[in-house]
């Protein structure tokens, strides 16, 4: 056994190096390289249209330059396609309304940090500011985003995580993770997933549809999703009680100093 130990250590190190070589960073996409987003039509554009696409999945009926009714496309033909005079519902998406598997769009950041794309395994998002558009990074061909390394991993090593939505709107886990989760919104036969992340030391509960924070002890702990807030943990009747507190406007919580500055 002792004679085999050096060999086993060598083999472990070799596998670690090989694994590291299979994980590479993505390339940040310029705004101009992202797919064009959908632009709603207008009944008052002066073209005399009888209908316009008000969204990717619904159309507005026009009369006298005004929208008089909103009509959703049916589930069999869920996409609205604009025409020169009137719109039509189709099984094929219009420009800017690509199928969810091919969409490359920024997301509105629900938390700081790195988040997977809810629909496309080939890209991931870096969120630097809350409620602002993410920076989109694309993996090389044959690679997908890996949640553990926050980099791109070869398809030969494992498979990408895909969000599995049900037939109705609701929350689902993101693969085996309990920190990342998705909200599936079903409307007019079209399902759209939105990605979210619980703060560090938190797990998502499908029973309460919320992130449950686990206190590491008594004290104040920064909210990793939003540094302008923090969790206050204290003991009461032998159990930890946790409350989310907000810092004054324009300040962030300093965990070392234990106050907002």
Automatic annotation (TrEMBL):
Q: Where is the Chitin-binding type-2 domain?
A: 106-162, 212-261
- Which SMART domains does the entry mention? ChtBD2 (SM00494)
Q: Which residues form the signal peptide?
A: 1-20
Give the record's keywords alphabetically.
Signal
Matching InterPro entries: Chitin-bd_dom, Chitin-bd_dom_sf
Annotated GO CC locations: extracellular region
Q: Name one GO molecular function term.
A: chitin binding
What is the protein's name according to its record?
Putative chitin binding peritrophin-a domain protein
Q: Which organism is it from?
A: Aedes albopictus (Asian tiger mosquito)
